[in-house]
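Researcher: Structure for this, please.
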Amino acid sequence: MKYIVVDLEWNQPLSFESKVYREVGDRLIFEMIQIGAVKVNEKFEVEDSISIPICPTHYVKIHPRIRKMTQLGVEELAGQPHFLEAMEKFVSWCGEDYALLTWGCDDVSVLKQNMDFFHCDLELPPLCDIQRLFSDVHKCKERKGLKAAMEMLSIEPDADRYFHNALHDAYYTALVFATLPEPAAVLKYPQEPRQLIHTKKEKVKGETFASIMEGLESELARQPRCPVCGKKTKVQDGYVKQCADKYIGISKCPHHGNLLIRLRFKAIGENKRVMTLNIDKATAAKCAYVSTKRIQVAEKEAQYLAQHGRLPDPEEELLNADRTSMPFED
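Model: Predicted structure, token format:
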């Protein structure tokens, strides 16, 4: 079996008020513009590589920030294959028996969104996360970026291989992957794509607490203010944990109805937890989602308790949470 280490680069709308974004909306927040991959053999040696630039069909003007990071612009992408042709080329290059690997939790969601939007029905194996394996092996309190991981291992970047090029990043990721004591263990870390979304929400400036529990029991969390009238509301049935750093709940304003409250925690050192709060109008579907999530979490906690005799430590989970700036739907 071969290991395919893949990295993606993508463009975004120049403005979320632009005509093209209004047409496609959250169905395509990021449009892929490059696939880079290296093929690693069973000795964990790089034996082949591929770079596939992709000509965008919707966000055809490259965002200045993306152009600066990737060094890909309209000129470089003109005449290149569109998404479906690029994916067929990539899957053909991968071969028959292979595993797909990435660094971090972002690429899998962008890839899934692009495949759904462009109706790509190619079969792919799960994308497994090298970053999670690296963090567990090295007992990192926080997920390490690729550059930081290379620095830990004293891997020097090549002058000709700049970061934020999909092929170069895939190559560097493969070098890090090969240093792990049991690289094949990465197959235990398959990723599930998450829904990407861009919405306007009321965001309350972060406050610092000593622990997650202190934040959840604070007045800010228990009595969030309605973004319309500013009056205090009361969270019904408390919060339910979505993942290590996110909690959700429903509160109700007597004048403006149900509100969806999202809390996000960030660990600053050992004893500081910054909690930010987002408030959005809660539709019936969102209320149902919170109720369903509450049941799912209760079932998982019961199973965990039966196996381990205790519940997982939320503080420990937070310190090991995936770090990303992607606009995932909570």
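Researcher: Any notable elements?
Model: DSSP finds twelve helices and ten strands in the chain. The mean pLDDT is 91.
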